[in-house]
Amino acid sequence: MSDQPYEPLRPKKGPLGELFAPVAGFGVTFSSMFKPTVTEQYPRKKTPPQTRYHGRHQLNRYADGLEKCIGCELCAWACPADAIYVEGADNADAVDGAPEAHMSPGERYGRVYQINYLRCIFCGLCIEACPTRALTMGPDYELAGPTREGLIYEKQDLLAPLAEGMLAAPHPMAEGTTDTEYYRGEVTAPTAEQVDWVREHRPDDPTLDAASAVVAGDAPPPVPDTHHLRPDQDRAEATRAAATQSSLDRRPVQTEEARP
Ligand code: SF4
Ligand code: SF4
């Protein structure tokens, strides 16, 4: 033990500081009293969170519509909460009798992809582990629901929507490319061969017209979807509606005898 008297590191207050010290804690209160009151109109009006907010996950696509996920399961292994379940499969088996068709560039794709939002702690380790930037996290924060099953998001819930001009998978990779060109961002639109392949195998595909326009130069190349808050009439709305209905169903039913 040292015999030196204790010297606090914080500089000593002056006489004015000493005078106001007992009420210094009210400084924040007083300054807040003169600020305008802001009432968020949630859920009628959704407020976008800060730019780097990490909310619901999204499985992204390349500009020609192929999925970025290659089913490698690295995200599932990185997850400390064991919230992700992935089953990969060979692209060659994606379409019976058409080994040239791909769901994603390369050999494998994510056939099954689930995130259990009852377990997820939104740490972001999964998106750091993803080698293709297939998995990212966006601003969507409406992740509550009345059932456990509803909070296990399947691949179709997580997959980014097809942007205008993209060609729905499965279809062949852009001719003359490997997965490396995809990773480097050198595939920027569907090609004529891809459009022809889809026209031959799925003539009713709704994405054909827009993709054909891109190939013909009549429309700009597709811009892969960035994260967004989901529109009102979607899963979040359905979840709220289900929750409301469920609480209505749980109300005690009054019998004739119980009524006054
Ligand atoms: S954010 Fe964290 S807890 Fe959630 S799925 Fe990713 S790794 Fe798992
Ligand atoms: S999201 Fe990324 S890390 Fe997870 S399986 Fe797909 S490619 Fe692999």
Shape descriptor reads elongated
Q: What's the β-strand tally?
A: 5
Q: Tally the helices.
A: 9
Major sheet: size, sense and barrel closure? 3 strands, antiparallel
- Provide the gyration radius in Å: 27 Å
Given as residue ranges, the uncertain stretches (5+ residues, pLDDT < 50) are 250-260
Helix/strand/pairing category: alpha+beta
Sketch the topology as an H/E string, one letter per element: HHEHEEHEEHHHHH
**Percent of residues in beta strands:** 5-15%
The overall pLDDT, averaged over residues, is: 87
CATH class category of the domain at 57-222: Alpha Beta
Helix content: 25-40%
**Could you say what the CATH topology of the domain at 57-222 is called?**
Alpha-Beta Plaits
Query: What is the second-level CATH architecture of the domain at 57-222?
Result: 2-Layer Sandwich
Strand line-up of the largest beta sheet: 2-3-5
- Small molecules bound in the structure, each named once: iron/sulfur cluster
| N→C terminal distance | 78 Å
Membrane topology: Peripheral membrane protein
Binding site for [4Fe-4S] cluster 2: 79, 120, 123, 126
Enzyme class: translocase
GO molecular function: 4 iron, 4 sulfur cluster binding; iron ion binding; NADH dehydrogenase (quinone) (non-electrogenic) activity; quinone binding
Task: Write a concise synopsis of the structure shown.
By secondary structure, the protein is α+β, with helices and mostly antiparallel strands. Helix content is 25%, strand content 9%. The radius of gyration is 27 Å and the shape is elongated.
